[in-house]
Design a protein that fits this description.
Length: 506
């Protein structure tokens, strides 16, 4: 069954629909893969006990002639920030260890209804705070390209699972780049939808005005197929957009025909300096732009003067919202409770939070509480929100001139585990190109653009589009993906040395 794990979700879905492969066979192949390599990768926090039962039910329904969805029977990994009724939901934190939700997140419920088979819950930085998945309370995830390196964060578990062929599809969440940055360093595809385009109901909140759920896959088409399943209005989410959305899988198929790039105006930000980027990242980015230009795209220099303040504004807005959202973990309502003999409720709460929260979470709660405190609100949080408005205006002005904006998805390739964990500022700067999209609510996609010359590790290119124009990203992403695939001759992930020639562990 080794070849089954190498199939894209679209290819696997086609074989399932034709009866060539059963969902049980496909699911078992991925469970076997997890058993074989996840001891080294540590992409999963929990593997489902019910996956084969779900797969068998899909097979029975298909055999009975029931009309199933286009991805029915395909296995799926779920980031542990999304609550599930049949598996623990911890958000990578000790304070929620063993927590079972009474309901499924909307995206999980929609995935089940579409016939996707949940394989398990993937590792993540605690409460999605981090860029490396080293801040998980349950241990770091390793990059399948080089097990000594980080897989990105906070959704490194989902990206690593897809890159290691442990799952063809995964769900992630993106607050400042937590889908796109892991995609960049693992050679996968990651999409942050328009804010409100995918329900956040049942996603354990970090920063409610920034969080967005999205797909993690190996191809743009696969991302579109998963986005079609999870997207659309949800009355449970007050920020959910009500309009109908086009098929993103159809948009990806249209892009792959190769006609989309002709006449496309691609904006490149003049204020984004080469000096802050690894040489191999810059070279790959320029090569991808050249490939688009050769297909008829027009590269246009644009100005976004307030993007440079995005990281500073983000790291005031996010901690402020996090300090509010995480107040619910009080030792009283749910989650961990550390008893203090003879102590008050306040004593129990303080001890529980001290034991249950990790250092990065504590750091951001303190920062956010300070930013919201009397006398500092206007100076810090209020000023950050003004910068956010200026960044939104930069996007509006840019999209009046270009169809999409292109940037490197992150400044460097995957760094070594432990290299930046004691330097929060350097860790924060890793999200410099992804954060603006979250501040403005616009969609973004990262697709593999090659390997950096100096270390042979994956590099991604990011495209951003106006709000509600997610389909445009799928068309452009699929078009460039097809061009690059022709150049490479094989999918980028086939070159991952840590995976072995036949998908086995190194």
């Amino acid at each position: 069954m080794t070849d089954l794990i190498r199939l894209t979700a679209a290819e696997l879905a086609s074989r399932l629909a034709s009866g060539e492969v059963s969902s049980v066979e496909a699911t078992q192949a991925h469970l076997d893969r997890i058993a074989a390599v996840d001891g080294d990768v540590h992409a999963f926090l929990h593997v489902s006990d019910h996956a084969l039962e779900v797969a068998a039910d899909i097979d029975r329904r298909r055999a009975a002639g029931e009309q199933l969805g286009p991805v029915a029977g395909v296995p799926l990994a779920i980031k542990d920030v999304l609550v599930t009724t049949d598996m623990p939901s911890t958000s990578g934190s000790r304070i929620l260890e063993g927590f079972l939700s009474p309901y499924d997140a909307t995206v999980v419920a929609r995935s089940r209804a579409a016939g996707l088979v949940p394989l398990g819950k993937t590792n993540m930085d605690e409460f999605a705070m981090g860029s490396s998945t080293e801040h998980s309370a349950y241990g770091a995830t390793h990059n399948p390209w080089d097990l000594d390196r980080i897989p990105g964060g906070s959704g490194g578990g989902s990206a690593a699972a897809v890159a290691a062929f442990e799952a063809p599809l995964a769900l992630g969440s993106d607050t400042g780049g937590s889908i796109r940055q892991p995609a960049h360093v693992t050679g996968t595809v990651g999409v942050k939808p328009t804010y409100g385009g995918v329900s956040r109901y049942g996603a354990i909140a970090l920063a409610s005005s920034l969080d967005q759920v999205g797909p993690v896959t190996r191809t743009v088409l696969d991302a579109g197929l998963l986005h079609d399943v999870i997207g659309g209005h949800d009355p449970h989410d007050s920020t959910s957009l009500t309009e109908a959305w086009p098929s993103f899988a159809a948009a990806a198929r249209e892009g792959a025909t190769g006609q989309v790039l002709k006449g496309l105006k691609v904006g490149v930000i003049s204020e984004l300096p080469d000096s802050g980027f690894q040489a191999g990242v810059s070279e790959s980015f320029r090569a991808a732009l050249a490939a688009m230009e050769a297909q008829g795209a027009e590269i246009v220099e644009i100005s976004a003067p307030h993007f440079e303040y995005g990281v500073a504004a983000y790291y005031l807005i996010l901690p402020a919202e996090a300090s509010s959202n995480l107040a619910k973990f009080d030792s009283v309502r749910f989650g961990l409770r550390v008893d203090v003999p003879g102590g008050t409720v306040e004593d129990v709460m303080a001890k529980t939070r001290d034991v249950g929260f990790g250092e990065e979470v504590k750091r951001r709660i303190i920062l956010g509480t300070y930013a919201l405190s009397a006398g500092y609100y206007d100076a810090y949080y209020g000023s950050a929100q003004k910068v956010r408005t200026l960044i939104q205006r930069d996007f509006d002005e840019a999209f009046a001139k270009v169809d999409v904006i292109a940037t490197p998805s992150a400044p460097t390739t995957a760094f070594k585990l432990g290299e930046k964990i004691d330097d929060p500022l350097q860790m924060y700067l890793n999200d410099v190109t992804t954060i603006p999209a979250n501040l403005a609510g616009v969609p973004g996609i990262s697709i593999p653009s090659g390997l950096a010359a100096e270390d042979g590790l994956p590099v991604g290119i990011q495209f951003l589009a106006p709000a509600r124009e997610d389909a445009r990203l799928y068309r452009v992403g699929a078009a460039l993906e097809a061009v690059l695939l022709d150049q490479w001759g094989a999918p980028l992930l086939d070159r991952a040395p840590a995976l072995g020639a036949n998908g086995g562990a190194r």
